[in-house]
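Worked Example 4.2. Consider the chain below.
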Amino acid sequence: MPATPRLAVQAPAPARPGVRSAVLALTLSACCMGGAAAQGARPAADAPLLSSPLPPGLPSGTGAGYHSPASPIAPLPPRTDVLPWSVLADLTRKTTKDGVLPVFSAQQLSMHQTVQRIQGFMVPLDSRAAQTHFLLTSVPLTCPFCLPGGPESMVEVRTRTPVRYAIEPVVVQGRFTLLHNDPYGLYYRVLDAVAVE
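Applying the procedure from the previous section yields the following structure tokens:
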């Protein structure tokens, strides 16, 4: 009987400064590229549908995300004390030699460097139970490698104290910052954030 080949498994290297930023960049680029490639892919005949298609008239890959009615996670509950995602999604883009850059509305510009509350679904950037650096998105993830929308549908969050990961929506409050030419393609960041009820 021939010998069974064995695969060598190497333990992950310990995190070094700057690794999280690299992980964020790779995650965002892989998600964006994977999502674009997957749009043309056809599922196997017996594969379960994880989400329904976009409503008519909405091109895929645009907007602040579409919450599938088939999602097991409920959409964000309405709140009047948080910044609406519709305000964040209301922007245009321009193409320059540096790439595609956001053109913020007057309302968005007036919020730059002000304290804001944002409600969303947490996308952790490491495997810890409590996060100090994560993304908030307007709709929940449908898979661990696919972001639910473009950069207008997510906010990078850096917290003052760790926030426990949850599938349910979280609300954070902190200094809201517009990102005019972020190297990772993000448009919004909240700094010195804390979790609020």
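The first strand starts at residue 92 and ends at 96. The chain has a mean pLDDT of 76. Compare this with Example 4.1 before moving on.
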